[in-house]
Amino acid sequence: MELRKINTKDAIAEWEYITNLPADENGLTNPYHGVSYEEFTEKVLPLLISYENPVGMPDWFVPETYYYLWDGDRLVGEFRIRHHLTPALRDGAGHIGYSIASDERGKGYGTEGLRLTLLIAREIVPEDEIYLRVNKDNVASQKVMLNNGGRIVGEDEGHYFVRIAK
To answer: How many domains, the chain?
Structure first.
């Protein structure tokens, strides 16, 4: 398995993955659900690639890099690393958001993908810990985070807040 940074070479697989993700699932939002391939390659893909080194974005915007988890020639998951925290991210979504293709869940991809993502995040993130948030009803993601050294440090009505040591 490998993580690949979002790129134009893998555009077809990335488009298929992104456009098939629901608009909102388990707290991961996807405004690109259902966009055409043409719109994806002309607008969405360049925009998502630019998020790593943003120019002209609002002050609250945090650089974010998209990675895709590949098992051989199959794209099975998406992992996003936010490079640092704002107060809203510190008390909210944290550094990493991810999803696994619905037909690939329960096969260990989440655990391995998060492990690989943490290796990268530890080099990028300036904070002492990696912050994550998980819906209380998403037991599978809770296990993924705990399997990667996560510990629950708080909660609100619908979420647990998880920290993983750098």
So the answer is: 1
List pLDDT tens digits, range 5-20: 999 999 999 999 999 8
Asked if 81 and 65 touch (Cβ cutoff 8 Å), the reply is yes
Please list the residues that pair with 131 across neighbouring strands: 163
Residue 102 belongs to some domain of the structure:
yes
* Ranges of H-type helices in 9-152: 11-20, 37-39, 45-50, 87-90, 109-124, 139-147
Under DSSP, the state recorded for 157 is: S
Per the rule left: phi > 0, alpha: psi between -120 and 50, beta: everything else, 76 is alpha
Residue 28 belongs to a domain:
yes
Residue 153, number of CB atoms within 10 A of its CB? 11
